Records
---
Amino acid sequence: MGSKFMGLEHHQVRISWSSQKKDVDSKKKGETKNNGPQSFVASFVNSGNDPFYNNAELYFRETFWSKYGKNDPPFAVNTFDGHEWNFYVDGKHVKG
């Protein structure tokens, strides 16, 4: 995957990357090209294959972000390379 994301290596996470960066022709638009960090869309889906994650929750660093249980709907979030996403089960941090 080549990402520096933390906690996204677990088999129950599916990530779809789509760059949000648009190339700008600086000569035509009079704007400069954004050379800063690029955002991506990460889609989180619990496959339901591992009962250990039936009541999981997703956190950005230490901040609750979303439920991530077996029957919870998938969701997408704009994020950046280097962001730290963590999984918790029964209030305890578990590795991705």
---
Amino acid sequence: MTDKVNIDVPLENSADDLDFVQEVQISKWDILGAASDLAIKFAYYDRKEDENLPVGAIQKAIEAEVVTVDEIVEAFAKELKRKL
């Protein structure tokens, strides 16, 4: 079920002026799909040119118990709540 809702969001480049909004339709699955995209970017695509945290480093760090998936999720959730 895709139960979309209409939400008013600021137009691009007008975040300071809420008089300029557009209505978009969005569903829970749109948001969860974006979260899935973020996960693969975090674990793989953003690592391709990162010298400090290259591809595979996160997985190896989890396997070596340097960090846990729960700690990563908690850090992401904390930042997301702070930014919203």
---
Amino acid sequence: MSGNLTKYQPVSVSFTDKRPEGIDLTEDEIGAAIARVSKIGTQVAINCRRRRHSAGSYFACGRDIPENDIEETYVEKEKVFARRHHLHDFLECVGRNPKRCKYVWLKPGVDECADAIVLIVNASQAGRALGLAAYHGNFGVDLIPAAPTCAAVFRPLIDPKRIHVNFVDYFDRDLQARDCFEDGELLLSMTPKLYCSLISAIDLSPHGSQPPTGIPIYPGDKSNFPATLPPSPPGTPPARNRAAAPSPRRGSPRHTPRSPRGRRTGGNR
């Protein structure tokens, strides 16, 4: 599937208490580590015992951080949430890695014994992957607003029947994993079993490589598409391509709404 749906390699994620032999320990946070493994193809391991005051350490690596520190970070410093009870609802939604471990091992390729498979995709590729899941009747999606990037590595353990969709949170995209992800890239993660079910649907589903047959295709008139728009003033964002609204015919009567008593209302005084 990776060849059809993403130009990068899948990432196999394993949680272990034994340090993987011959694998370098990275100082990257989880988001940057996923990008490194998927795009460069190197194996890395993260030491969960390093003392980091980060989302990855708390959610994925099992480090206990005082509740007051979490509230101060998310509500008072970063202002991700307006109220503390919003934060606690969020923490309950995201959960924490159910596997307490010493190392998070990330390697390129698909290991069917791994705990999770993570893909870097764009919106079109994500749509195809979800379409392949739908082929097997799997219509559920695990999507949590404002979810940390690190949730991608462990959410499949909490919700193994659904694909987790992760948009790479602002802190990774703008700061600690800056330039690791292109605009529009996001993460899909799932169990190896669910990943293999997507693979099995590639040759069977039109979301994969099976072309639809016996269905008429109506291409329409593309001679005036995209519509030509007048140039925007300097410094303004580009306008979306859209058809121009028809202008009213000259001499057509103006429609004036009537009041409940039948009098004409509106218009300039």
